[in-house]
Amino acid sequence: MTLNNKRTYTAKVIGTDPGTDLALIKIDEKKLPFVPFGNSDKVRIGEWVLAVGNPFNLTSTVTAGIVSAKARNINIISGADGSSIESFIQTDAAVNRGNSGGALVNPNGELIGINAAIASANGYYTGYSFAIPVNLVKKVYQDLRDHGEVHRAYMGVSLSEITGEFAEKNGLKDTKGVYVDEVVENGPAQKSGIKKGDIILAVDDVTVNGTSELQEVIATKNTGEKVKIYLIRDNKPFELSVVLKEKSEQTEIAHKNSSEIFNQLGATLQQVPNDLKNKLSLKYGLQVTSLKDGILNSSGIKKGFIILKVDNKSVRSVDELGNILKAKEGGILIEGIYPNGMRAYYGFGL
Known about the structure:
Blueprint: E1 12-17, E2 22-26, E3 48-53, E4 61-72, E5 88-91, E6 103-105, E7 111-118, E8 129-133, H1 134-147, E9 153-154, E10 157-161, H2 164-169, E11 178-183, H3 188-192, E12 199-203, E13 206-207, H4 211-219, E14 226-233, E15 236-243, E16 245-246, H5 247-265, E17 267-271, H6 274-280, E18 286-291, H7 295-298, E19 306-310, E20 313-314, H8 318-326, E21 331-337, E22 343-349
Antiparallel strand pairs: 1-2, 3-4, 3-6, 4-5, 5-8, 6-7, 7-8, 9-16, 10-11, 11-12, 12-13, 12-14, 14-15, 17-18, 18-19, 19-20, 19-21, 21-22
């Protein structure tokens, strides 16, 4: 890598985290200048920011803009286990190819994000740029530095955004918070007393009004850490404590408990590739990549089919599908779409 003083170094990769698209590298040098960490939770919409990077090989270019939005999910980071975290800071600072990995700083010179992406039809800046919030960066950095890998905290819930339509349909008074669709069996949330239908308003002292915000807050926590969850249940406020687990711990349990069910299904499943998600305007789903003798094949499902919902419950990961099916007996309805855009519904029994 080459620094601003034109000196070149061979960097060592300490670790990577595909779930956030971050990596930690190290060079052998002392007394280097550095940018202090800020606090992305305190960043406000309308605040001035500077984006630093090397667009088009123009070394150390600085552009200015404002924070346009927070907790943006634009579905560019894929994770086979559903562990990707997207909660970007959106700005209108000009960012192009070569800016990725560069600093997003506030007027005090503090790092508040790392530039990661743009939204554009032609691959060049059109007014929308996105940065990974620094509080998430700090957690990833510390884990990679100390352990060489990220230990992702996990609460064990499936969530839905509360829109006006959703609130009216479910008899909710307003659109604040995040709706708990499902609670993973034996997960941290279930053990703490969180139930399906609860509305999570805040984690510790951080208010959450969307799934991306909640995922970001949990992703900044350490495994084994106890957090306060403020929620509404039956129109009454509740406060619960949740001890977060390691994501891999719960995944291992889910795989063991779900293995028999997936053998019955007779299919190999994966997260939908980003290009296909963009083509079909999808936010989630599992694609059938191969079939053998089993329930799905017998039901008429073809290779390439994308499972979106099971009995009207959204499916965002293999673990989530396993947890839904484990609790089912009798008839099941699967809703999905094929890569050509054709919607399809299939029913079968377990």
